[in-house]
């Protein structure tokens, strides 16, 4: 696995431990993502709203509301969207979605 992949796996393990109430030495940073960043993440992968929603396990309606700013993604969805935006090729390799 690549260095980025190792870091992502370690980060997700730390996030899970934190969510389960376990004490960790990790720092939790607030991740923010704007509607235009969500739309850009999808477009970079070359997926329609329906395809993107299906690939990442959300409803197309929810994705549309995120992209229009009517709703805000939370938790792991927000983090995954930020990763998709910043490292789309790594996500495609890891999940084989496109």
UniProtKB/TrEMBL annotation:
Keywords: DNA-binding, Transcription, Transcription regulation. It holds the Pfam family HTH_3. The keyword Transcription regulation applies. The keyword Transcription applies. InterPro entries: Cro/C1-type_HTH, HTH-type_reg/antitoxin, Lambda_DNA-bd_dom_sf. Residues 38-91 form the HTH cro/C1-type domain. This is Helix-turn-helix domain-containing protein. The lineage of its organism: Bacteria, Pseudomonadati, Pseudomonadota, Gammaproteobacteria, Steroidobacterales.
């Amino acid at each position: 696995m690549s260095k980025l992949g190792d870091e992502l796996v370690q980060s997700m393990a730390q996030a899970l431990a934190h969510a389960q109430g376990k004490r960790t030495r990790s720092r939790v940073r607030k991740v923010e993502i704007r509607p235009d960043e969500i739309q850009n993440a999808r477009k970079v992968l070359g997926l329609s709203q329906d395809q993107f929603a299906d690939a990442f396990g959300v409803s197309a309606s929810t994705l549309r509301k995120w992209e229009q700013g009517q709703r805000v993604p939370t938790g792991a969805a927000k983090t995954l969207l930020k990763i998709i935006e910043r490292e789309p090729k790594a996500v495609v390799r890891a999940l084989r979605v496109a």
